[in-house]
Amino acid sequence: MVYKKGAKNFYAEVDSKINNAFVQQCKKRGQLKNDTINAAMKVWLSLPQEIQSKFMQPNIQPSFQNLLDNIEEHQIMEELRKIPLRTKAEILQKARKKTKSKQKKIGAR
């Protein structure tokens, strides 16, 4: 096997079900396992630590939608951190008023 300059061997124990599914999918899609693993590592390295931590939990069933949801949640939380505390309080107050008015309308029916 010819190695690319600067390439390193990478060995890891992987659950046999995951490995079998990975190998089958690579074959079906005509993808090289090395290229696929490199691409997956690039994605992993670009994820915020909070999302990586969630995927490390044993009970999680990672899916593309789950990943998107986690990224979106992280982005929302980052944006919320930027909002001044006074503005957050005003937003919450308006939301509570809307909720109360909706409850009154529902009760009036």
What profile does the largest beta sheet have?
none
> Nearest-angstrom radius of gyration?
23 Å
Give me the strand/helix succession. HHHHH
What characteristic shape results from the CA principal axes? elongated
Explain what this protein looks like in three dimensions:
With 109 residues, this protein is mainly α. The protein has helices at 16-29, 33-46, 49-56, 64-82, 85-108. The chain is elongated. The termini are far apart. The mean pLDDT is 81.
Summarize the structure.
The protein is mainly alpha-helical.
Q: Which properties best describe this structure?
A:
0% strand, mainly alpha, 109 residues
Can you lay out the helices and strands and say which pair or pack?
Elements lengths: L15 H14 L3 H14 L2 H8 L7 H19 L2 H24 L1
